[in-house]
Amino acid sequence: MDQRPPPAPPTSGTAARTVSSLLPEFPWDRLIPFKRRAAAHPEGLVDLSVGTPVDPTPAKVRHALGHASDAAGYPAVWGSPALREAIRAYLRRRCGAVAMDDESVLPTIGSKELVASLPSQLGVRQGETVLIPAVAYPTYAVGARLAGADVLASDSTFSVGPRRVRLVWVNSPANPTGRVLPVDHLRKVVSWARERGAVVASDECYFECAWDVEPVSVLDPEVNGGSLD
Q: Listing from the earlier edge strand, what are the strands of the sheet with 199-203?
């Protein structure tokens, strides 16, 4: 019988290095060499990578926050009925959305948290694929990897081949390209996903930022045929 004492547990620094060695390269880190190269330019670097607000917070917003701060208990996970109705009203008015019931809307604490956790919440697993735009917000890929799924970066469904795609991300107007997807493109994506039992997740957080082309939401009947299935 081996009488040697068990090895000492690793220090926190060693444990951190061990864990980090098992993780894939974080997409944001791949930008570091490009940032260094741009910074070496004679005119310097114009860094648009962090959207930190610099404008004063409007008084109306500060007043609303102050008024809402005097509330006991925890807020409801899905927000108040008034908030959900306000969201649905905006989607009907601005996005031409099909009729939605109360369960069609869910406020979240932040878009990044939802994007990163959505594949896992949908049950996407190892051996399945998440389709993301060719040039895209890196958290789409991070969420797929957290679920153990494969990632395919492509703007065409023809490139999927025999892969089992469970989730399709579209982003229009797109970050960082500014591309606005036309109705026909979105309609084909929705139809393609329906045939394969995939979920279409349309990131429309820049919907109000299109300049020369009016964007179209996947909630619009022109895209989905009047159904959110």
A: 150-153, 129-132, 165-171, 199-203
Whether this model's pTM surpasses 0.85? no
Are 199 and 167 in contact by the 8 Å Cβ rule? The answer is yes
Instruction: Kindly give the residue spans of alpha helices, DSSP state H, lying in 30-138.
Output: 32-39, 59-68, 81-95, 111-121
Crossing angle of the two packed helices 139-146 and 111-121, in degrees rounded to 10 = 30
3-state secondary structure of 8: coil
β-strands 165-171, 129-132 pairing:
parallel
| 119 contact partners, CB below 8 Å, separation of at least 6 | 130, 143, 144, 146, 147, 149, 166, 167
DSSP three-state, residue 61: helix
pLDDT digits (tens, 9 = 90+) for 154-202: 999 999 999 999 999 999 999 888 999 999 999 999 999 999 999 999 9
How far apart are alpha carbons 78 and 205 in whole angstroms? Answer: 19
Domains of the chain: 78-107 (no CATH), 110-222 (3.40.640.10)
